[in-house]
Design a protein that fits this description.
Blueprint (H helix, E strand, L loop, with lengths): L5 H19 L8 E2 L12 E6 L2 E6 L2 H35 L11 H4 L3
Antiparallel strand pairs: 1-2, 2-3
Helix pairs in contact: 1-2
Length: 115
């Protein structure tokens, strides 16, 4: 097995620390989808849609609730993106720094979840 790359590990650790700091500054979060429809569209002007136990649930919101929830949903999506990046860095560190069993062929980045 080749020796682990120290510079890559240091770089990954710095990126991981930066992502952890981003998590600390995350505001309110919520799942779902909100939209602003005009008054002539029929139905609620500010619907919030989400899945609950496999069923789609829709709730009518006020303009103030819509604005708040829109930001919370954006925060949720940014949080998910940050967590995916942290998972990718964690797997990269795992497979680069720890010994692994002998394999006939090298595992692809897709198989390792690094892509």
């Amino acid at each position: 097995m080749p020796a682990p790359k120290r510079s890559s590990s240091s770089s990954r650790q710095k990126k991981y620390a930066r992502l952890r700091a981003q998590l600390a500054h995350t505001g309110w979060i919520s799942e779902g989808y909100v939209q602003a429809r005009g008054p002539g569209a029929g139905g609620a002007c500010y619907p919030w849609t989400r899945k609950v136990k496999g069923k789609t649930v829709c709730v009518a919101l006020s303009k103030e609730q819509y604005e708040w929830l829109k930001q919370a949903i954006a925060n949720w999506r940014a949080l998910q993106k940050t967590l995916r990046q942290m998972q990718r860095l964690s797997r990269a560190e795992l497979f680069a720094s720890l010994p692994h069993p002998k394999r006939r062929k090298q595992l692809s980045k897709k198989v390792l979840g690094l892509r």
